[in-house]
């Protein structure tokens, strides 16, 4: 059996919501702590999509941040491609993990530098990871990336504001692909888009997965989107994984009433 691309074990994150120490001392208010993510464990097989679904505040983005290494868990850990993000001291393998994982954010408006042409946005990761040294090769790679996400070579000279929301999300995806990742974390990548555009971007992500064998962690509050994308689903409620299963089984035979409520709130047709 091949090892999973991602293993999360007992991931836990607490936020300190207390007032400052002096205020607490003067008012006698106790310390307050929020357990935003509570011992969450899951695995993502290579080339598959694992969706984390749950209402606002259930801990989805906090998990995504810990998985990409933007936030340290208070307990538990994340292993990507065999490297433990939280305990590994080996700078070379951590650099390899950083290259292999990318994140696509919710807002295609704020995640692209408005002062850079698309060409420079796509060249940045290619240069940062020292992937292609000659200029001709770099330009060829930019054209290939644009083609992969359904944009044309002439788009390289434009600025982000010259594109629609869906096209900007395509640029974000192309930028994610530029470092040849094997694993992408997609945090609500279509929730800022119109429904018709959503379907196109979801289809693009699925095509890229088939073509490039990508593994996705897909974060969403929307069961209709998850139904289209996921092979496996984990349902989060107040930071805890209340149900997890193969997507088809979870939709056909949900065990938890919370999962049923999420499914019942879903429009029946989407893509
Ligand atoms: N930096 C922080 N400091 C304090 N509390 C936080 C912080 N970040 C998140 N939280 C809290 O942790 C809980 C989980 O938040 P998180 O953003 O992970 O949820 P989510 O499921 O992604 O929600 P949404 O869909 O609204 O983004 C929420 O109660 C949130 O208020």
From TrEMBL:
Keywords carried by this UniProt record: ATP-binding, Nucleotide-binding, Transport
SMART domains: AAA
Signal sequence coordinates: none
Keyword check for S-adenosyl-L-methionine: no
Identification of the protein by name: Oligopeptide/dipeptide ABC transporter, ATPase subunit
Molecular-function GO terms, alphabetical: ATP binding; ATP hydrolysis activity
Pfam families per the UniProt record, alphabetical: ABC_tran
Matches recorded under InterPro entries: AAA+_ATPase, ABC_transp_ATP-bind, ABC_transporter-like_ATP-bd, ABC_transporter-like_CS, P-loop_NTPase
Any Gene Ontology biological process: transmembrane transport
Record-stated family: Belongs to the ABC transporter superfamily.
Annotated ranges, domain ABC transporter: 15-263
CDD domains to which the protein is assigned, alphabetical: ABC_NikE_OppD_transporters
Organism: Puniceispirillum marinum (strain IMCC1322)
